[in-house]
Amino acid sequence: MVGQRTVDQQEIVDSIEDSIFTFPDIPGVxxxxxxxxxxxxxxxxxxxxxxxxxxxxxxxxxxxATIDQVKEIFREANKVCGW
Length: 83
Known about the structure:
- Strands 1-2-3 form a three-stranded antiparallel beta sheet, with helices on one face.
- With about 80 residues, the protein is an alpha+beta fold.
- The chain starts with 8 loop residues before the first helix and ends in a 7-residue tail after the last helix.
- The protein has one domain (about 10-75).
- It is globular.
- Helix content is about 30%, strand content about 20%.
């Protein structure tokens, strides 16, 4: 058919993650933390749903440092996170 194109699996994953991990920065409620290669939301509640990490685009070169950085963010806040 005219105008149709094939969507690959990575495009589907990217689309779902983009819709789920688009976090608003709401002062006093949530904070979007700038970490390269991932989306990080730091919320008020001490739960994995309120403190989430997603959209990871990690490579062999950046995986360890990025995970360490994210772990430190939540360790300092004394909160668990969902990844």
